[in-house]
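U., I forgot to send this yesterday:
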Amino acid sequence: MFALPLGDGAELRPLEPWQAEEFLAHMDRARADVDPWIPWASRSTDLDSARATLQRYADLQAADTGRIVGIWLDGTLVGGAMLFDVDVKAGNGEIGVWLEPAAQGRGLITRACRALLDWAFRERGLSRVQWVTRPDNARSLAVAARLGMTREGVLRESYPYRGKRYDSEFWSVLAHEWPPA
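Result:
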């Protein structure tokens, strides 16, 4: 098994289809908190749908257009980070994250994002990684700022969620802005 220590009993590991049962148990703990921000949270409600979510990311990884990693805290899956919409030729991608309530407030998301951004810029050679969130997601906005991202703007009413349209706020960081390891 491959793991990257994040400190304080946490580690970043690949999250793969064979881990669907563990992922589903995690989603059951996280869904209410994660659903407004991550579209697939409400679709990963049984073993088959959880496996399908992870398989979509395995397929993205195989096509070199994305990746998903989990955050384990003291041996329990508590969240994760994903890199998606990767276009290696253009040098662009998008990062997203989630965390269940019991693991919040420990800096795990910021540390996981740093590791994933290091990989995206140093190993995959991306030039730009964006972060998209709703303006009312204060935790997400704070992480983007802690990562040194630049706020680029807002797309008004671009995100439909449960019959209502929300704005999407865009942030990004460029490879030449990313701090050295």
